[in-house]
Write a structure and sequence with these properties.
This protein is α/β, with parallel strands linked by helices. The protein contains 10 helices and 21 strands. The protein folds into 3 domains: 64 residues, Archaeosine Trna-guanine Transglycosylase, Chain: A, domain 4; 114 residues, RNA methyltransferase domain (HRMD) like (Transcription Regulator spoIIAA, 2-Layer Sandwich); 191 residues, Vaccinia Virus protein VP39 (Rossmann fold, 3-Layer(aba) Sandwich), CATH 3.40.50. β6 and β7 form a beta hairpin.
Amino acid sequence: MERKKVVVGPESVRMLELGHPWIIADACTKKWPAGTAGELVELVDGSGRFLATALLDPGERVVARVLGRERLILNKEWLGKRLRAALRLREAHAGLDDGTDAWRLVNGEGDGLPGLTVDRYGEYLMVQLYSAAWRPHLKALTRALEEVLRPAGIYEKSRPRKTRELEAVSDTKRYGRLLSGTPAPPRLPVRENGLTFLVELEQGLNTGLFLDQRKNRRELMGRVAGRRVLNLFAYTGAFSVAAAAAGASLVTGVDAAPTYTDWAKANFGANRLNPKRHEFIVGDCLDVLEELQRQKKRYDIVLMDPPSFSTTARSRFTTRGGTSDLVAAALPLLEEGGLLVTSSNHQKVDVADYLKELRRGALQGGSELRVISLSGQPEDFPYPVTFPEGRYLKYAVSVKGGGLPR
Protein backbone atom coordinates (compact mmCIF):
# COMPACT_ATOMS: atom_id res chain seq x y z
CA MET A 1 0.00 0.00 0.00
CA GLU A 2 1.36 3.38 -1.05
CA ARG A 3 1.42 5.75 1.91
CA LYS A 4 2.46 9.31 2.50
CA LYS A 5 6.12 9.54 3.49
CA VAL A 6 7.02 12.27 5.97
CA VAL A 7 10.55 13.30 6.84
CA VAL A 8 11.57 13.58 10.48
CA GLY A 9 14.50 15.67 11.71
CA PRO A 10 17.79 14.37 13.14
CA GLU A 11 16.63 14.63 16.77
CA SER A 12 13.47 12.64 16.02
CA VAL A 13 15.53 10.06 14.13
CA ARG A 14 17.74 9.68 17.19
CA MET A 15 14.73 9.27 19.48
CA LEU A 16 13.18 6.71 17.13
CA GLU A 17 16.43 4.74 17.05
CA LEU A 18 16.40 4.79 20.85
CA GLY A 19 12.91 3.27 20.73
CA HIS A 20 10.75 6.24 21.72
CA PRO A 21 7.22 5.97 20.24
CA TRP A 22 6.43 9.69 19.85
CA ILE A 23 7.21 12.30 17.23
CA ILE A 24 7.08 15.72 18.85
CA ALA A 25 6.06 18.68 16.65
CA ASP A 26 9.07 20.71 15.53
CA ALA A 27 10.31 22.79 12.61
CA CYS A 28 10.63 19.66 10.49
CA THR A 29 7.08 18.39 11.08
CA LYS A 30 5.71 21.83 10.15
CA LYS A 31 6.86 21.09 6.59
CA TRP A 32 4.82 17.90 6.37
CA PRO A 33 2.02 17.88 3.77
CA ALA A 34 -1.51 18.36 5.12
CA GLY A 35 -2.97 15.24 6.68
CA THR A 36 -5.89 14.07 8.80
CA ALA A 37 -6.00 12.61 12.31
CA GLY A 38 -5.77 8.83 12.13
CA GLU A 39 -3.99 8.69 8.79
CA LEU A 40 -1.14 6.18 8.64
CA VAL A 41 2.15 7.63 7.44
CA GLU A 42 5.64 6.30 6.87
CA LEU A 43 8.35 8.06 8.84
CA VAL A 44 11.59 8.44 6.91
CA ASP A 45 14.89 10.20 7.55
CA GLY A 46 16.44 12.89 5.36
CA SER A 47 17.78 10.30 2.92
CA GLY A 48 14.38 8.61 2.53
CA ARG A 49 15.24 5.58 4.70
CA PHE A 50 12.11 3.98 6.18
CA LEU A 51 11.96 4.20 9.97
CA ALA A 52 8.44 3.34 11.17
CA THR A 53 4.70 3.37 10.53
CA ALA A 54 2.88 5.95 12.61
CA LEU A 55 -0.56 7.36 13.31
CA LEU A 56 -0.81 11.01 12.35
CA ASP A 57 -2.34 13.57 14.73
CA PRO A 58 -1.72 16.95 13.08
CA GLY A 59 -1.97 20.06 15.21
CA GLU A 60 -1.06 18.27 18.45
CA ARG A 61 2.21 18.37 20.38
CA VAL A 62 2.64 14.63 19.72
CA VAL A 63 2.13 14.88 15.99
CA ALA A 64 2.64 11.15 15.27
CA ARG A 65 2.65 7.93 17.32
CA VAL A 66 4.63 4.90 16.24
CA LEU A 67 2.64 1.69 15.66
CA GLY A 68 5.52 -0.43 14.42
CA ARG A 69 9.00 -0.42 12.95
CA GLU A 70 7.61 -2.21 9.91
CA ARG A 71 5.04 -1.41 7.23
CA LEU A 72 1.62 -2.52 8.42
CA ILE A 73 -2.12 -2.31 7.84
CA LEU A 74 -4.21 -1.06 10.75
CA ASN A 75 -7.33 -3.23 10.68
CA LYS A 76 -9.31 -5.61 12.88
CA GLU A 77 -6.85 -8.47 12.32
CA TRP A 78 -3.78 -6.40 13.23
CA LEU A 79 -5.56 -4.99 16.30
CA GLY A 80 -6.61 -8.50 17.32
CA LYS A 81 -2.98 -9.64 17.36
CA ARG A 82 -1.99 -6.72 19.61
CA LEU A 83 -4.96 -7.37 21.93
CA ARG A 84 -4.16 -11.07 22.24
CA ALA A 85 -0.54 -10.26 23.06
CA ALA A 86 -1.71 -7.81 25.73
CA LEU A 87 -4.05 -10.41 27.19
CA ARG A 88 -1.30 -13.05 27.31
CA LEU A 89 0.95 -10.68 29.23
CA ARG A 90 -1.75 -10.11 31.87
CA GLU A 91 -2.53 -13.79 32.15
CA ALA A 92 1.15 -14.64 32.63
CA HIS A 93 2.34 -11.82 34.88
CA ALA A 94 -0.43 -9.69 36.41
CA GLY A 95 -1.36 -12.13 39.19
CA LEU A 96 -5.09 -11.75 38.52
CA ASP A 97 -7.44 -14.23 40.19
CA ASP A 98 -11.12 -14.71 40.98
CA GLY A 99 -10.91 -11.90 43.54
CA THR A 100 -10.17 -9.30 40.84
CA ASP A 101 -12.14 -8.61 37.68
CA ALA A 102 -11.18 -4.94 37.20
CA TRP A 103 -7.82 -4.38 35.47
CA ARG A 104 -6.15 -2.80 32.47
CA LEU A 105 -6.04 -4.75 29.21
CA VAL A 106 -4.28 -2.16 27.02
CA ASN A 107 -1.86 0.39 28.44
CA GLY A 108 -1.10 2.53 25.40
CA GLU A 109 2.59 2.58 24.51
CA GLY A 110 3.24 -0.35 26.83
CA ASP A 111 1.16 -2.59 24.57
CA GLY A 112 2.13 -1.12 21.21
CA LEU A 113 -1.10 0.90 20.92
CA PRO A 114 0.08 4.44 21.79
CA GLY A 115 -2.59 6.91 22.84
CA LEU A 116 -5.16 4.22 23.68
CA THR A 117 -6.21 2.42 26.85
CA VAL A 118 -8.72 -0.37 27.45
CA ASP A 119 -9.85 -1.30 30.96
CA ARG A 120 -11.92 -4.25 32.08
CA TYR A 121 -14.68 -3.71 34.63
CA GLY A 122 -16.35 -7.05 35.27
CA GLU A 123 -18.02 -8.11 32.05
CA TYR A 124 -17.59 -4.67 30.47
CA LEU A 125 -14.73 -2.90 28.72
CA MET A 126 -13.90 0.80 28.82
CA VAL A 127 -11.98 2.39 25.94
CA GLN A 128 -10.28 5.77 26.30
CA LEU A 129 -8.69 7.63 23.42
CA TYR A 130 -5.87 10.00 24.36
CA SER A 131 -5.37 10.97 20.73
CA ALA A 132 -7.86 11.91 18.01
CA ALA A 133 -5.79 9.69 15.72
CA TRP A 134 -7.67 6.66 17.07
CA ARG A 135 -11.13 8.04 16.33
CA PRO A 136 -11.29 6.78 12.69
CA HIS A 137 -10.24 3.30 13.88
CA LEU A 138 -12.68 2.98 16.77
CA LYS A 139 -15.07 0.66 14.92
CA ALA A 140 -12.27 -1.73 13.98
CA LEU A 141 -11.06 -1.67 17.58
CA THR A 142 -14.56 -2.39 18.88
CA ARG A 143 -14.92 -5.38 16.56
CA ALA A 144 -11.51 -6.70 17.58
CA LEU A 145 -12.37 -6.37 21.28
CA GLU A 146 -15.66 -8.20 20.73
CA GLU A 147 -13.85 -11.03 18.98
CA VAL A 148 -11.01 -11.42 21.50
CA LEU A 149 -12.87 -10.90 24.80
CA ARG A 150 -16.62 -11.23 24.08
CA PRO A 151 -17.65 -8.65 26.70
CA ALA A 152 -21.22 -7.88 27.71
CA GLY A 153 -20.65 -4.33 26.48
CA ILE A 154 -17.98 -1.87 25.41
CA TYR A 155 -17.97 1.77 26.50
CA GLU A 156 -15.90 4.74 25.47
CA LYS A 157 -15.16 7.40 28.08
CA SER A 158 -14.24 10.60 26.27
CA ARG A 159 -11.22 12.66 27.32
CA PRO A 160 -12.34 16.28 26.88
CA ARG A 161 -9.89 19.13 26.85
CA LYS A 162 -9.51 21.28 29.97
CA THR A 163 -10.38 18.41 32.31
CA ARG A 164 -9.14 20.47 35.26
CA GLU A 165 -11.93 22.99 34.78
CA LEU A 166 -14.50 20.27 34.16
CA GLU A 167 -13.58 18.12 37.16
CA ALA A 168 -15.77 20.03 39.60
CA VAL A 169 -18.94 19.38 37.58
CA SER A 170 -17.97 16.05 36.04
CA ASP A 171 -20.23 13.94 38.26
CA THR A 172 -23.38 15.24 36.61
CA LYS A 173 -22.24 14.92 32.99
CA ARG A 174 -22.12 11.82 30.84
CA TYR A 175 -18.70 11.35 29.31
CA GLY A 176 -19.25 7.64 28.66
CA ARG A 177 -21.17 6.12 25.76
CA LEU A 178 -22.00 2.56 24.83
CA LEU A 179 -20.21 1.41 21.68
CA SER A 180 -21.62 -2.13 21.57
CA GLY A 181 -23.44 -4.69 23.68
CA THR A 182 -25.93 -4.16 26.49
CA PRO A 183 -25.88 -1.16 28.87
CA ALA A 184 -24.23 -1.59 32.25
CA PRO A 185 -26.22 -0.75 35.37
CA PRO A 186 -25.39 2.49 37.18
CA ARG A 187 -22.84 1.84 39.93
CA LEU A 188 -21.69 -1.44 38.42
CA PRO A 189 -20.14 -3.70 41.12
CA VAL A 190 -16.65 -5.03 40.32
CA ARG A 191 -14.11 -7.01 42.33
CA GLU A 192 -10.58 -6.07 43.39
CA ASN A 193 -8.47 -8.01 45.89
CA GLY A 194 -11.60 -9.78 47.05
CA LEU A 195 -13.45 -6.51 47.74
CA THR A 196 -16.40 -4.97 45.91
CA PHE A 197 -16.32 -1.49 44.39
CA LEU A 198 -19.03 0.41 42.56
CA VAL A 199 -18.02 2.00 39.26
CA GLU A 200 -19.83 4.34 36.88
CA LEU A 201 -19.24 3.74 33.18
CA GLU A 202 -21.36 6.62 31.84
CA GLN A 203 -21.34 9.60 34.18
CA GLY A 204 -18.25 11.51 35.20
CA LEU A 205 -14.74 11.91 33.83
CA ASN A 206 -13.57 8.84 35.78
CA THR A 207 -15.20 5.56 36.73
CA GLY A 208 -14.67 5.87 40.49
CA LEU A 209 -11.88 3.27 40.79
CA PHE A 210 -8.26 3.91 39.81
CA LEU A 211 -7.02 0.51 38.68
CA ASP A 212 -3.33 1.41 38.85
CA GLN A 213 -3.48 1.40 42.67
CA ARG A 214 -4.68 -2.20 42.99
CA LYS A 215 -1.38 -3.67 44.27
CA ASN A 216 -0.76 -0.66 46.50
CA ARG A 217 -4.17 -1.10 48.14
CA ARG A 218 -3.33 -4.74 48.74
CA GLU A 219 0.03 -3.72 50.21
CA LEU A 220 -1.72 -1.28 52.55
CA MET A 221 -4.07 -4.01 53.76
CA GLY A 222 -1.11 -5.84 55.28
CA ARG A 223 -0.19 -2.83 57.45
CA VAL A 224 -3.42 -1.51 58.94
CA ALA A 225 -4.81 -4.09 61.40
CA GLY A 226 -5.73 -2.38 64.67
CA ARG A 227 -4.46 1.02 63.51
CA ARG A 228 -6.01 4.45 63.02
CA VAL A 229 -5.88 5.52 59.36
CA LEU A 230 -6.35 9.00 57.91
CA ASN A 231 -7.07 8.96 54.16
CA LEU A 232 -6.73 12.38 52.48
CA PHE A 233 -8.23 13.04 49.03
CA ALA A 234 -10.23 9.89 49.66
CA TYR A 235 -12.27 10.18 46.42
CA THR A 236 -14.74 7.24 46.40
CA GLY A 237 -12.99 5.57 49.32
CA ALA A 238 -11.17 2.64 47.70
CA PHE A 239 -8.17 2.90 50.04
CA SER A 240 -10.55 3.50 52.98
CA VAL A 241 -12.53 0.34 52.18
CA ALA A 242 -9.31 -1.67 51.86
CA ALA A 243 -8.11 -0.40 55.26
CA ALA A 244 -11.43 -1.00 57.02
CA ALA A 245 -11.78 -4.49 55.53
CA ALA A 246 -8.26 -5.37 56.70
CA GLY A 247 -9.05 -4.51 60.32
CA ALA A 248 -8.16 -0.83 60.82
CA SER A 249 -9.64 0.32 64.12
CA LEU A 250 -10.68 3.67 62.62
CA VAL A 251 -10.62 5.02 59.07
CA THR A 252 -11.11 8.75 58.59
CA GLY A 253 -11.69 9.72 54.95
CA VAL A 254 -11.43 13.34 53.81
CA ASP A 255 -12.58 14.70 50.44
CA ALA A 256 -13.82 18.06 49.22
CA ALA A 257 -16.73 16.58 47.23
CA PRO A 258 -19.91 15.44 49.04
CA THR A 259 -20.84 13.25 46.05
CA TYR A 260 -17.57 11.31 46.34
CA THR A 261 -18.08 10.94 50.09
CA ASP A 262 -21.54 9.48 49.53
CA TRP A 263 -20.05 7.13 46.95
CA ALA A 264 -17.43 6.07 49.49
CA LYS A 265 -20.15 5.22 52.00
CA ALA A 266 -21.88 3.15 49.31
CA ASN A 267 -18.60 1.27 48.74
CA PHE A 268 -18.44 0.54 52.47
CA GLY A 269 -21.98 -0.81 52.31
CA ALA A 270 -21.16 -2.96 49.28
CA ASN A 271 -18.57 -4.73 51.46
CA ARG A 272 -20.85 -5.05 54.51
CA LEU A 273 -18.70 -2.56 56.38
CA ASN A 274 -20.65 -0.27 58.67
CA PRO A 275 -19.75 3.31 57.65
CA LYS A 276 -20.94 4.56 61.06
CA ARG A 277 -17.91 2.87 62.66
CA HIS A 278 -15.63 5.17 60.65
CA GLU A 279 -15.42 8.88 59.82
CA PHE A 280 -16.22 10.73 56.60
CA ILE A 281 -15.27 14.40 56.44
CA VAL A 282 -16.19 16.75 53.59
CA GLY A 283 -13.77 19.65 53.26
CA ASP A 284 -10.55 21.04 51.88
CA CYS A 285 -7.76 18.71 53.04
CA LEU A 286 -5.45 21.46 54.34
CA ASP A 287 -8.31 23.06 56.28
CA VAL A 288 -9.31 19.69 57.73
CA LEU A 289 -5.71 18.96 58.76
CA GLU A 290 -5.61 22.25 60.68
CA GLU A 291 -8.88 21.41 62.44
CA LEU A 292 -7.79 17.87 63.30
CA GLN A 293 -4.58 19.25 64.77
CA ARG A 294 -6.56 21.68 66.91
CA GLN A 295 -8.57 18.72 68.15
CA LYS A 296 -5.26 16.95 68.98
CA LYS A 297 -6.20 13.95 66.82
CA ARG A 298 -3.49 11.38 66.15
CA TYR A 299 -3.18 8.59 63.59
CA ASP A 300 -0.92 5.59 63.04
CA ILE A 301 -1.09 5.83 59.24
CA VAL A 302 -1.70 8.92 57.10
CA LEU A 303 -2.34 8.28 53.41
CA MET A 304 -2.51 10.92 50.67
CA ASP A 305 -3.23 10.18 47.01
CA PRO A 306 -4.16 13.59 45.60
CA PRO A 307 -4.94 14.29 41.95
CA SER A 308 -2.16 16.03 40.02
CA PHE A 309 -4.27 19.19 40.17
CA SER A 310 -7.33 20.13 42.17
CA THR A 311 -9.15 23.31 43.09
CA THR A 312 -11.53 24.01 45.95
CA ALA A 313 -13.18 27.24 47.07
CA ARG A 314 -10.29 27.82 49.49
CA SER A 315 -7.17 26.46 47.82
CA ARG A 316 -5.47 25.04 44.75
CA PHE A 317 -3.26 21.94 44.85
CA THR A 318 -0.55 20.90 42.41
CA THR A 319 1.87 18.00 42.86
CA ARG A 320 4.97 20.11 42.27
CA GLY A 321 5.18 22.41 45.29
CA GLY A 322 1.88 21.38 46.88
CA THR A 323 3.03 17.96 48.05
CA SER A 324 5.58 19.40 50.49
CA ASP A 325 2.96 21.67 52.10
CA LEU A 326 0.56 18.76 52.44
CA VAL A 327 3.21 16.51 54.00
CA ALA A 328 4.23 19.24 56.45
CA ALA A 329 0.61 19.77 57.48
CA ALA A 330 -0.03 16.04 57.96
CA LEU A 331 3.07 15.12 59.98
CA PRO A 332 1.90 16.67 63.31
CA LEU A 333 -1.07 14.27 63.23
CA LEU A 334 1.11 11.20 62.71
CA GLU A 335 2.40 9.26 65.70
CA GLU A 336 6.14 8.84 66.07
CA GLY A 337 7.03 5.64 64.22
CA GLY A 338 3.81 5.90 62.23
CA LEU A 339 3.58 5.50 58.46
CA LEU A 340 3.15 8.28 55.92
CA VAL A 341 1.88 6.81 52.64
CA THR A 342 2.13 9.22 49.72
CA SER A 343 1.29 8.81 46.05
CA SER A 344 1.32 10.83 42.85
CA ASN A 345 0.29 10.06 39.27
CA HIS A 346 1.79 13.24 37.82
CA GLN A 347 3.63 12.11 34.68
CA LYS A 348 5.92 15.15 34.55
CA VAL A 349 7.22 14.70 38.11
CA ASP A 350 9.78 11.90 38.19
CA VAL A 351 10.74 9.81 41.22
CA ALA A 352 13.75 11.96 42.14
CA ASP A 353 11.72 15.18 42.07
CA TYR A 354 8.92 13.54 44.04
CA LEU A 355 11.32 12.45 46.79
CA LYS A 356 12.57 16.04 46.93
CA GLU A 357 8.98 17.12 47.63
CA LEU A 358 8.81 14.62 50.49
CA ARG A 359 12.14 15.91 51.81
CA ARG A 360 10.91 19.52 51.74
CA GLY A 361 7.74 18.48 53.52
CA ALA A 362 9.68 16.66 56.22
CA LEU A 363 11.94 19.67 56.78
CA GLN A 364 8.96 22.03 56.91
CA GLY A 365 7.21 19.70 59.35
CA GLY A 366 10.30 19.34 61.52
CA SER A 367 10.26 15.54 61.29
CA GLU A 368 12.50 12.80 59.99
CA LEU A 369 11.03 10.60 57.25
CA ARG A 370 12.60 7.32 56.13
CA VAL A 371 11.32 5.65 52.97
CA ILE A 372 10.87 1.92 53.52
CA SER A 373 9.02 1.12 50.29
CA LEU A 374 8.81 2.76 46.87
CA SER A 375 6.67 1.32 44.10
CA GLY A 376 4.64 2.22 41.04
CA GLN A 377 1.89 0.83 38.87
CA PRO A 378 1.07 -2.92 38.68
CA GLU A 379 1.95 -5.41 35.94
CA ASP A 380 -1.12 -4.63 33.84
CA PHE A 381 0.28 -1.10 33.36
CA PRO A 382 3.51 -1.98 31.47
CA TYR A 383 5.70 0.62 29.78
CA PRO A 384 8.69 0.31 27.44
CA VAL A 385 12.10 1.01 28.95
CA THR A 386 12.52 3.39 26.00
CA PHE A 387 9.49 5.42 27.17
CA PRO A 388 10.21 6.90 30.62
CA GLU A 389 6.94 8.86 30.47
CA GLY A 390 5.17 5.54 30.97
CA ARG A 391 6.43 5.18 34.55
CA TYR A 392 4.19 7.82 36.07
CA LEU A 393 2.95 6.40 39.40
CA LYS A 394 4.95 7.01 42.56
CA TYR A 395 3.85 5.30 45.79
CA ALA A 396 6.08 5.77 48.84
CA VAL A 397 5.72 4.37 52.36
CA SER A 398 7.78 6.34 54.89
CA VAL A 399 8.32 6.03 58.63
CA LYS A 400 8.12 9.14 60.77
CA GLY A 401 11.03 9.65 63.16
CA GLY A 402 14.09 7.66 64.05
CA GLY A 403 12.38 4.74 65.78
CA LEU A 404 11.28 1.42 64.37
CA PRO A 405 8.08 1.20 62.27
CA ARG A 406 5.00 0.80 64.42
